[in-house]
Every structure is written in structure tokens, then in C-alpha cells.
């Protein structure tokens, strides 16, 4: 894996290189990329080239081996070994690989749906909380306006009383 990106945002190119070369040094071939920053992690892999290099003897690092296993390259290598030994034919190997891939896709789809449901539930809860907060603020504002209107009405009544008293005093004089 050759590191790319910038500080705090690394992504990697999956490469074929001599084991004696440095991590970001000279490579033989770039066969894919891996981005751990997305949720879920994104792996873009040239399946045929990865399978070719593994079958001709390339030794993947532990991390790359896990990525290749997740994409099915290591399983296909294993199935091709069975075909070479005569345990089953190429059609059976492809059938087994397709069944594994379908099972994996179903599992990932279930996980992504549950993640989407969790996000939707969290958004709904946040919206409900915001609605309640807005209702409380609206009630508080209405109460303050009512108190201000009552104070204004009381001041108007007070002013009217004072005006009536002033007119009575003026009439009395």
C-alpha cells in the first residue's frame, strides 16, 4: 500500500512492488485504491490483475491480504487451486464464488440499511426535540407578550384614571 492524501486524510493505492523498495517508492503496477475515510471504507480493486499477481506468487501484506479476502481474490485463488487439482470444474468454482459474493452483498446491504435506519431515527428524534424546544420558546414568547399587553393595558387604565382625576380637579377649580 502506497500512502497518499494529506495529514489527517490518508488514502492508499494498492500496488505491486518489490519487497525491498520503500513504501512510496518504485512500483510495478497499481491494482487499486483503499480509502479508510469513508463510511464504510471504500476499496476499488482491479480484480483480475490482483488475482493474477496473487496466483503468480506475490505476497500481500497483512492489511492488503485482508482487503483482498474481503473482495474475494483469495477465495478465487483457493477455488482455482481446486480446479487445478481436479476437485471440481471451472463452472462449479464460479458458482461457489457467485454464491459467496451474493451472501456477502446481502450482509453488507443489511448493514447499510440498518445504518440508514439508525440515521433516520436519530434525525427524527432530533426533529421532535427541536419541535418541542420551539413550542416551549413560542409559549414563553406568548406569555411575555401577554404580560406586556396587560402592563400596557394597566398603564392605559392608570393614565385614564389620572386624566379623569385631572379633569375633576380642573372642574373643581
Can you describe what's shown?
Helices cover 66% and strands 14% of the residues. The chain has 173 residues and is of the alpha+beta class. It has a domain at 2-87: Ribosomal protein S16 (S16 Ribosomal Protein, Chain: A). It has a four-stranded antiparallel beta sheet. Helix 1 (47-55) crosses helix 3 and helix 3 runs antiparallel to helix 4. The radius of gyration is 37 Å and the shape is rod-shaped. The termini are far apart.
Task: Give a quick rundown of the structure.
With 173 residues, the chain is α+β, with helices and mostly antiparallel strands. The chain contains four helices and four strands, in the order E-E-E-E-H-H-H-H.
Amino acid at each position: 500500500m502506497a500512502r497518499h492524501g494529506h495529514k489527517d486524510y490518508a488514502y492508499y493505492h494498492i500496488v505491486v512492488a518489490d519487497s525491498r523498495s520503500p513504501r512510496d517508492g518504485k512500483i510495478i503496477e497499481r491494482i487499486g485504491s483503499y480509502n479508510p475515510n469513508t463510511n464504510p471504507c471504500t476499496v476499488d480493486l482491479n480484480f483480475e490483475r490482483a488475482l493474477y499477481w496473487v496466483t503468480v506468487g506475490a505476497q500481500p501484506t497483512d492489511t492488503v491480504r485482508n482487503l483482498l479476502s474481503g473482495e474475494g481474490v483469495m477465495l478465487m485463488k483457493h477455488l482455482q487451486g481446486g480446479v487445478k487439482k481436479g476437485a471440481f470444474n471451472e463452472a462449479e468454482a464460479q458458482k461457489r464464488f457467485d454464491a459467496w459474493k451474493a451472501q456477502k452483498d446481502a450482509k453488507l446491504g443489511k448493514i447499510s440499511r440498518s445504518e440508514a435506519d439508525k440515521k433516520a431515527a436519530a434525525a427524527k428524534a432530533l426533529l421532535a426535540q427541536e419541535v418541542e424546544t420551539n413550542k416551549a420558546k413560542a409559549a414563553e414568547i406568548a406569555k411575555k407578550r401577554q404580560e406586556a399587553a396587560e402592563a400596557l393595558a394597566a398603564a392605559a387604565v392608570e393614565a385614564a384614571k389620572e386624566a379623569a382625576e385631572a379633569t375633576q380637579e380642573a372642574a373643581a377649580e
